[in-house]
Every structure is written in structure tokens, then in C-alpha cells.
């Protein structure tokens, strides 16, 4: 039977995602409203009998002065990636997007390739002969991931080259850190914390650190810490309106889609973080902290509260998002990797992002432009 891809309503999109165990927060309709520089569209995959069997949020970025677009499906689309008929699923998407003026399509299959246990990552960091996580033998591998990559290459898709700093991709991170929650009690998860984490949580409690849920009105307090974090860790911060827009859009779709947590101590806000939830997947999204009063360990206390709340929500995974795959002691991101793995997180590698040039000349021009950036 013929499979078609066409635009769907917001309600159809949300209903499909709600019927799945989880989907990326970048694959729900509200995420399009967070990205005003892109035109967002919900796509549906329909079988010949009218059944909706897939959905995706595509973001269309226009080329200056041309009605041609880069089409991007971050951490999507939400389709059956194990299907033996993968080309049957992807070809109609390419055809539809080409009709809409896309010159290139980028997607990020939410498919895990390899995992490293916290113990394996800790041992790799301690080994002076190991420099990259990608070169460390994994604790487990997903055989279907290599097959998926081979099939995509045969269809003409190209794996995006890793960009950004020290293993962080220019799009979405290929390497992330996740704590598995499925089938585990909160006591199990607490036992998975390393000794330093457990000690710091107790220290914060003893010092009187209080973790509270914030609202839209607390975003400026979060942003003040976030801007300080950006200066300290040498990255370019997003503007405050970005977070205000994110809160408004996500909360309108689901009042529990986005949460804000703040760590208070004696009248000071020392740390803050945002948490996103879709189905059973919970993400620690953005974090911020001040260099003041670090000895009271607000970050550990705040993360533990977020983990407890995620467990109460029925999460099957707590996702710390991106990590560096660099194991060099000189790398300033290694401390962040230690922090996340210390919470019991395993390092996870996805199959990465993939490009399909619909117009090779314009796709090449975009590659050159991105290289110059």
C-alpha cells in the first residue's frame, strides 16, 4: 500500500506522540514556537488505509533572498526506525519537503548505538592512554544501529560531521549522559550515586539549602545565573526572551512540559535549572549557578530533587543531555562529564545526525558557509 507524508494538525501530532513511550521535546508542536527564525510544520505519515503511523516536527530555515529552505527534524522524526521498509518511510518525506522548497534535509534518528556504564567511563578517564570516549570499548552495543547507518548510506544520506567544541555537535549532541530509571526504586537510584554525590547532598541539606519550583516570574533570576555561567564556562548565552518564549509555548501545550528549579540559601539563589518532560523521558535542559557559596553544594541538591520529581512522574530515563567525548584532563568540559557520571549516568552514543542534499549546489554552499562560521 502507498504511504504518504503530509501536514497534520497540532492535535493529531500531540495525540500520536502521547501514544508513544516517549519522543524528543524537539519533536512536539510547541518546540516550533521556541524557534521563531524557523518555520515549523507538523508532518504525518499515513498508510493507504488512513492510519497515522509516524509524526515529526520539521523546522524550515529560509536561505537569504531565496524561497529555498534547510529542513531540519531535530531528534526525529518519530517513526519506526527498526522497520525493514525504512526507505518507504523516508522517501515520501523527502518528496514532500522538496515540494515545499527544501534544498537539504537534516534529521537525527533517536536511535542509540553504544552505551558505557559509569564504571567504564570512570576507568577510561583514569587511563592516560585513552583520549576519546569513541575509542573506548562500550559496555553494550545496539546491533541495529550499525545496520541503520548502512541502510541510510545506501539511500544517499550522509552522516553529519561532528562540529562544535570537543565532541559537541553543531546540531544536537551525539553523546549524552542518561540515568536509567525504568524498573528502579528511588533507593536504587540513590545507591547509584557515587560517594561524593551522596556526601554533597547531605552537606547541602545540613547547610540549609532549599530547592523550590519556580515560575515564569523567576526566569530573570535563572537568567542572571545563566549569564554568569556562560562567562565562566566560555559559551555564548541565549537571550532571556528565548527562555520566556520556551516557557510560554511549552506550558501552553502541557503545564508540566517545562519546570524551573531554584536552589536558595539564606536569601540567595545559588543555582537554577530547567527540566523538560515528554512521556517517560525527562531532560535536565539548562543549568546555571554562581561561583559564590559553592561549598554548600547547591547543584547536587537541586539535581537530586529533580531526579526525585522525575521518578515521581514515572520517568523511565533521566537525561543529562550532552557530554564531551574527550577524556583529556586539560579539557574544561571533563568536570561536567565527571559530575553527570557521578550521579550514576551512563554515557550514550546516538547514531548522529544525517543530511540528504536535495539540491547539491545549494547544500554545498551551506556547507561552505557553516565551515566559515
Automatic annotation (TrEMBL):
Name the UniProt record assigns to this protein: Peptidoglycan bridge formation protein FemAB
Keywords: Acyltransferase, Cell shape, Cell wall biogenesis/degradation, Peptidoglycan synthesis, Transferase
Protein origin, superkingdom: Bacteria
InterPro entries named among the record's database cross-references: Acyl_CoA_acyltransferase (IPR016181), FEMABX (IPR003447), PG_Glycine_Bridge_Synth (IPR050644)
Similarity comment text for this entry: Belongs to the FemABX family.
GO molecular function: aminoacyltransferase activity
One GO term (biological process): cell wall organization
Any Pfam family: FemAB
Keyword Transferase among record annotations: yes
Amino acid at each position: 500500500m502507498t504511504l504518504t507524508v503530509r501536514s497534520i494538525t497540532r492535535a493529531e501530532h500531540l495525540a500520536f506522540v502521547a501514544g508513544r513511550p516517549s519522543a524528543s521535546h524537539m519533536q512536539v508542536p510547541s518546540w516550533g514556537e521556541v524557534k521563531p527564525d524557523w518555520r515549523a510544520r507538523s508532518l504525518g505519515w499515513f498508510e493507504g488505509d488512513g492510519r497515522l503511523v509516524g509524526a515529526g516536527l520539521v523546522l524550515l530555515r529560509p536561505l537569504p533572498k531565496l524561497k529555498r529552505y534547510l529542513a531540519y527534524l531535530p531528534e526525529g522524526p518519530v517513526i519506526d526506525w527498526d522497520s525493514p521498509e525504512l526507505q518507504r518511510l523516508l522517501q515520501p518525506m523527502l518528496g514532500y519537503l522538496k515540494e515545499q522548497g527544501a534544498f537539504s534535509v537534516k534529521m537525527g534518528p533517536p536511535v542509540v548505538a553504544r552505551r558505557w556504564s559509569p564504571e567504564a567511563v570512570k576507568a577510561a578517564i583514569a587511563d592516560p592512554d585513552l583520549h576519546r570516549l569513541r575509542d573506548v570499548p562500550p559496555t553494550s552495543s545496539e546491533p541495529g544501529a550499525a545496520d541503520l547507518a548502512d541502510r541510510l548510506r545506501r539511500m544517499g544520506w550522509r552522516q553529519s560531521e561532528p562540529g562544535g567544541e570537543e565532541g559537541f555537535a553543531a546540531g544536537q549532541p551525539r553523546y549524552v549522559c542518561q540515568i536509567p530509571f525504568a524498573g528502579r526504586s528511588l533507593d536504587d537510584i540513590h545507591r547509584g550515586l557515587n560517594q561524593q554525590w551522596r556526601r554533597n547532598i547531605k552537606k547541602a541539606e545540613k547547610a540549609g539549602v532549599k530547592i523550590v519550583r519556580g515560575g515564569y516570574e523567576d526566569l530573570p533570576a535563572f537568567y542572571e545565573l545563566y549569564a554568569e555561567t556562560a562567562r565562566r564556562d566560555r559559551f555564548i548565552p541565549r537571550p532571556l526572551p528565548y527562555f520566556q518564549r520556551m516557557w510560554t509555548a511549552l506550558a501552553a501545550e502541557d503545564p508540566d512540559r517545562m519546570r524551573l528549579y531554584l536552589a536558595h540559601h539564606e536569601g540567595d539563589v545559588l543555582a537554577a535549572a530547567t527540566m523538560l518532560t515528554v512521556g517517560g523521558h525527562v531532560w535536565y535542559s539548562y543549568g546555571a549557578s554562581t561561583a559564590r557559596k559553592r561549598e554548600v553544594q547547591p547543584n547536587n541538591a537541586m539535581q537530586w530533587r529533580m531526579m526525585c520529581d522525575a521518578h515521581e512522574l514515572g520517568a523511565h530515563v533521566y537525561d543529562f543531555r550532552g557530554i564531551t567525548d574527550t577524556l583529556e584532563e586539560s579539557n574544561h568540559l571533563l568536570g561536567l562529564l565527571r559530575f553527570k557520571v557521578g550521579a550514576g549516568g551512563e554515557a550514550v552514543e546516538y547514531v548522529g545526525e544525517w543530511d540528504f542534499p536535495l539540491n547539491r549546489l545549494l547544500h554545498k554552499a551551506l556547507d561552505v558557509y557553516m565551515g566559515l562560521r
